[in-house]
Amino acid sequence: MNSEQTTDIARRVRWHAALADPTRLRVVDLLTVSDHSPSELAAVLGLPSNLLAHHLHTLEEAGVLERRRSEGDGRRSYLRLTSQARRRAGEDGRSAAFPTPRRVVFVCTANTARSHLAAALWRRASAVDATSAGTHPGERVHRRALEVARRHGLDLPDVPPRGLEEVTGEGDVLVTVCDRAHEEVGGRAWAHWSVPDPVALGTRAAFESAHDLLADRVRGLARLTRAGSV
Questions:
Q1: Which of 32, 48, 61, 201 is most buried (CB neighbours < 10 A)?
Q2: Start and end of every HTH arsR-type domain (predicted)?
């Protein structure tokens, strides 16, 4: 056995050992749909912070999850599955015990980029209706958001950004794609995806990265919707 094979086996042993615990499997289930701060996970799981920290450290060491500092409240961080863990969770057929929504509303602060891209990706992936909104809507959709949509063949109309309160209705579920928006709407959000703001950099690469992150999350959630479990 060569060194590369030995390293791969050791990595797989860490991975399976990390998941050989009901609490850690529950953490993976929760993060399959939504990013969470440690305090949010502690509240859902009913765990003291020191015990949760132990479980999170084990999952991080095994490459199952990663942390990202909030772009809103800098004292807060969000946990999300690594891309490899997300693929494995999808293969496991994990499902969430929620009814299929009437409509998904993707929310960011200005409703000029991430929320529009998420809604466009969703419309291509799912038969469930979708729209987007902002907690503090800007003046217009960012030109680079329109450009990246065209490059990927997405239907993203150049429409004025809209406020959350004028968009949402009964039966809607909110998915925040912006840390600031998530921290503003609080418990109203059904799921949160901590996606870096591409407008802050304004580069083509930043918008491509936002598109790719959103596409990955949309595929996973749309798969659950098709199974009738969201």
A1: 32
A2: 4-101
